Amino acid sequence: MDVNSIIPEFDAFIAEFPDFDLFIILTQDGIIKYCSDPDRVQSEQTKALMQAWLNHESACVLGKDRYPILSWEPLQFAARNVKGKGALVGTVTSSNHYLVAHLKPDAKLAPAIAAIYLNRKFWKLI
Could you say which of 3.90.79.10, 3.30.450.30, 3.40.30.120, 3.40.800.20 is the CATH number of the domain covering 3-122? Predict the structure, then answer.
């Protein structure tokens, strides 16, 4: 995976879907391969996020915000903050990396739909 070739794809995706404001590429163990805003994400949290996703836990934390998980499917991860801090969505890719994105608090896209768009765009790219 060439991270430098992915960055323009993220930029184009945000131009088409401005509801997104963060992208993280992770291994199954939660190791960060790429993060569009490293100041917002800590490796301990991404490891816990992947554990919550894969073990069907009830919630995960990213930054200072807690996100109850709505869907744990490999192709469609979705979690929404109940205090209006946005949502997390994710999908697995063809190379078995995990892509997690943050939706802005005022996002028009529903988390489940946003996860589908992520999968359609990035399945073969990552």
Answer: 3.30.450.30
Q: Where are the domains of the chain?
A: 3-122
Q: By the 8 A CB rule, do 28 and 34 touch?
A: no
**88: which strand partners?**
79, 102
Structure-block tokens of residue 62: 């990213």
Q: Among 93, 95, 100, 96, which residue's Cα sits nearest to residue 52?
A: 100
Place of tokens 């995976």: 1
This prediction has a pTM of 0.93
Token digits of residue 54: 């894969």
Q: Chunked in runs of 10, what are the mean pLDDT values of the chain (126 residues)?
A: 86 95 96 94 94 96 93 90 94 94 95 93 91
Contact 62, 51 (CB under 8 A): no
